[in-house]
Write a structure and sequence with these properties.
The structure is a single chain. The protein is an alpha/beta fold and 245 residues long. It has one domain: HUPs (Rossmann fold, 3-Layer(aba) Sandwich), CATH 3.40.50.620. The protein has 7 helices and 6 strands. Strands 3-2-1-4-6-5 form a 6-stranded mixed sheet, with helices on both faces. Bound molecules: iron/sulfur cluster. Iron/sulfur cluster (SF4) binds next to helix 6.
C-alpha cells in the first residue's frame, strides 16, 4: 500500500465512527493488520471493538520484562473475557543482556539517552520485528494525551515504521473512552483506579495528580521538553531512537 492509497482510505472513512473505521481497516488489510496494546484504557476500548467485528483479532503487547503485575492480570482478564490470546512479544535476550550487563538493570535513570536506549531495546526493536509481517498497525493514540500528540491522524502513513498507522480514537476525549468502558463493561487495568493515566513499565510510570498532563506520569524525572515518548511513536521526527549503549 502506498501513501496515495492511504489518503484515499482516510478520505473514505473521514466521517466513520471508530468501529466503522476498524471495519474498513479489517476489510482492507485482513490478517495484515494488528492492534498494539499496552493494556491501557484506550487499547481496551479498541480490543472490545475489534472483538465485536472479528472472532480472530490480531492483538499483541510488548512485554518489556518490566511490566506491572496489574498489566499481566489485565492480559489474563482480557483473554478470558473475549476468548482471545493476546500475543506476548519479548525483546531479544542478547540485547537485554548486553544493555543490563554494561549499564546495570536501572540504566534508564541515568540520562534521557540511556532511557531511550532501554526503550529501544525493550520496545522499539521488538515492535519492528512484529510489524515486519504486517501492512498496518492500530494504536490507541489520542490527540488529547499530550501536546506532542496533537497532530495524530486517524489513519496515516507511518514513515518511521514504513506501515499504515491507524488511530481510531485520535479525536476522542478521556470522558468518551471511560464512557465506552462503562457502557460496555470492558475490563480495564486496575492501575487506572490508582491514578495512573497512562500504562507503561512499572519502574517508569507513576500516578498523575489532578490537572496534570496525561503523560506526566511517564519518566517523571525527565524535563517535559524531553518529549515523553519511548520511540514507538515518532512524531514530527522529534525522537530518533538509537542503539549506542
Ligand atoms: S519504559 Fe523504562 S523500563 Fe520500560 S523500556 Fe522504557 S526505559 Fe526501559
Amino acid at each position: 500500500m502506498d501513501e496515495r492509497t492511504v489518503k484515499e482510505l482516510a478520505q473514505r472513512t473521514a466521517k466513520a465512527s471508530p468501529q466503522e473505521l476498524l471495519d474498513a481497516v479489517l476489510e482492507t488489510f485482513g490478517r495484515r493488520v494488528a492492534l498494539a496494546t499496552s493494556l491501557g484504557a484506550e487499547d481496551q476500548v479498541l480490543t472490545d471493538m475489534l472483538c465485536r467485528l472479528t472472532k480472530r483479532p490480531q492483538i499483541f503487547t510488548l512485554d518489556t520484562g518490566r511490566l506491572p503485575q496489574q498489566t499481566y492480570d489485565t492480559i489474563e482478564a482480557t483473554n478470558l473475557r473475549y476468548h482471545i490470546r493476546i500475543e506476548m512479544i519479548f525483546p531479544d535476550t542478547t540485547d537485554v543482556e548486553a544493555l543490563t550487563t554494561e549499564h546495570g538493570p536501572n540504566s534508564f535513570c541515568q540520562s534521557v539517552t540511556a532511557r531511550e536506549n532501554c526503550c529501544y531495546v525493550r520496545k522499539v526493536l521488538p515492535l519492528r520485528r512484529r510489524l515486519s509481517g504486517l501492512e498496518a498497525w492500530i494504536t490507541g493514540l489520542r490527540r488529547e494525551q499530550s501536546p506532542a500528540r496533537g497532530g495524530v491522524e486517524r489513519i496515516a502513513w507511518d514513515e518511521a515504521n514504513g506501515r499504515v498507522k491507524v488511530c481510531p480514537l485520535a479525536d476522542w476525549t478521556t470522558e468518551q473512552v471511560w464512557q465506552y468502558i462503562r457502557d460496555n463493561k470492558v475490563p480495564y487495568n486496575p492501575l487506572h483506579d490508582q491514578g495512573y493515566a497512562s500504562i507503561g513499565c512499572a519502574c517508569c510510570t507513576r500516578p498523575v495528580k489532578p490537572g496534570e498532563d496525561i503523560r506526566a506520569g511517564r519518566w517523571w524525572w525527565e524535563a517535559p521538553a524531553g518529549g515523553k515518548e519511548c520511540g514507538l511513536h515518532v512524531i514530527d521526527g522529534k525522537l530518533v531512537p538509537r542503539k549506542d549503549w
